[in-house]
Write a structure and sequence with these properties.
Length: about 290
């Protein structure tokens, strides 16, 4: 069996929705679902040799147990027969999920929560987990039961190659078409690959730039299209602003896949602004895939 799919739960409606999605993902992969509950801070004053801290020490075990039972019931309802394990860990959500992600095929979280996962997308937790986790992160958000294609954001960067591979594999497992979207405009970073000052550069040959962007899109998907011949692929080249174009594409998608980093002057950041915008505003679940280090 391959690495498990992990899902962060806290008893909230958002996390239970994430459990359903995670259960389907585990079923698609033929692997186990691991339900993870992060339980605040462990006391820092435990004496040497003391037994490990647990919710039972504080009379909270019934609440945690109830949340996990509800999560298991939801998982079994959508994916009967999948193997399920539990992990209740004392620690902050980000730290716990980062550790769990080291041996996972996919991490899944809801877009809102309570307790350790409260404000997941309103603060920096999801952004940090997407940037520092060791497996792809799926954030369940948007309309319920989304249908349609898997949308892949293509940026042509080396770091984005992992996102392309993930999107093709996901489309194949879901038996869904793949829409590979590459957005360009006259401010595209590729317009300034030549010598000179990019701040004063003027694009005079837009057709040449468009042809270069089309070539980038074709090159990004060509080899993976050969590797996944059963996946129907639409290559969509859009002249637009990047973030609004991807958010709009998510309206009719069942999943959007983006890389953690992209092209441009901010490529060194662990999570690009485009990925962050899609995480916050997409109309369907979003998976952020980090490139191989």
């Amino acid at each position: 069996m391959s690495d498990p799919v992990i899902v962060g739960v806290d008893g909230s409606a958002s996390s239970l929705a994430a459990v359903e999605v995670a259960a389907r993902e585990a079923h698609l992969r033929g692997t186990e679902l691991r339900i993870v509950h992060a339980f605040g801070h462990a006391p820092g004053h435990l004496p040497a040799g003391a037994p490990p801290w647990s919710p039972a020490d504080h009379g909270l075990e019934p609440m945690v147990h109830g949340a996990l039972v509800r999560a298991e019931e939801r998982a079994q309802a959508v994916a009967p027969g999948i193997e399920i394990t539990r992990s209740v860990v004392a620690g902050e959500a980000l730290e716990v999920l980062e550790i769990e992600s080291r041996s996972a095929a996919l991490a899944v979280v809801g877009s809102r929560g309570v307790g350790s996962f409260a404000g997941l997308l309103l603060g920096s937790t999801a952004v940090q987990l997407a940037a520092h986790g060791h497996c792809p992160l799926m954030v369940v958000r948007g309309r319920p039961d989304p249908a349609g294609a898997v949308v892949l954001a293509v940026d042509g960067s080396p770091a984005g190659e992992a996102a392309v591979e993930f999107a093709f594999a996901e489309a194949a497992m879901r038996k869904a078409p793949l829409v590979a979207v590459h957005v360009w405009n006259t401010w595209s970073e590729r317009a300034y690959e030549g010598p000179g000052d990019p701040l004063t550069a003027v694009v005079t040959d837009e057709e040449h730039l468009r042809a270069a962007e089309q070539h980038l899109l074709d090159e990004a998907v060509a080899s993976w299209q050969e590797a996944f011949p059963d996946v129907a692929v639409e290559r969509r080249l859009l002249r637009s602003r990047i973030r609004p174009a991807l958010i709009d594409a998510s309206r009719e998608a069942q999943l959007v896949v983006v890389g953690a980093r992209g092209r441009g002057g901010f490529a060194g950041l662990l999570l690009g602004s485009v990925s962050q915008a899609v995480l916050h505003h997409a109309h369907c679940p979003v998976t952020v895939v980090r490139g191989k280090e």
